[in-house]
Amino acid sequence: MSKVVILSGSPSTQSRLYGLIHYATEQLREARAEVTLLNVVDLPAEDLIKANFNSPDVTASLALLADADAVIVASPVYKAAYSGLLKIFLDLVPQEGLREKPVLPLFIGGTLAHLLVIDYALKPVLNALGGRHILGGVYAVDQWVERLPGGAYGLSEELVVRLDRSVKELNELLKL
After folding, report:
1. Which of 6, 47, 77, 160 has the fewest CB atoms found within 10 Å of its own CB?
2. How many whole angstroms separate alpha carbon 129 and alpha carbon 122?
3. pLDDT tens, 18-64?
4. What are phi and psi of 81, to 5 degrees?
């Protein structure tokens, strides 16, 4: 069974980003992948900011990432880039921490104007961490994700098609 870690850099667990995360999680689990969600916001802020590599939470999170067969990097877009929270965590990942791991970016923003954030802001950092197989990813606009009662999300048809295609590509790489 392949292990996939979804690394969420959202400072809010109420973000529409979780519509994408939940959908991808369901699709991966249907393909029999073991999926773990790592919410960076749940880690101790002081340990992240001070780069405390002796922190049990930081150590456990980095071990989880190291043990993964693939990584989904998810973030909202702020000021034409991924969240600072995600950057703080990525700064703790070892230099070759993503080597041999397919990486699928999932991003959400308020406008299509930030569509290239994955290519211009995220991919160079992932590459610096040894990521060589970075999938095209999915960029969504807030309006494509509807909050439903009970914590569920409704996704636009276009977004579902794009997520299906990207998750299928990841599954093929993992041979699921």
Report:
1. 160
2. 11
3. 999 999 999 999 999 999 999 999 999 999 999 999 999 999 999 99
4. -150, 170
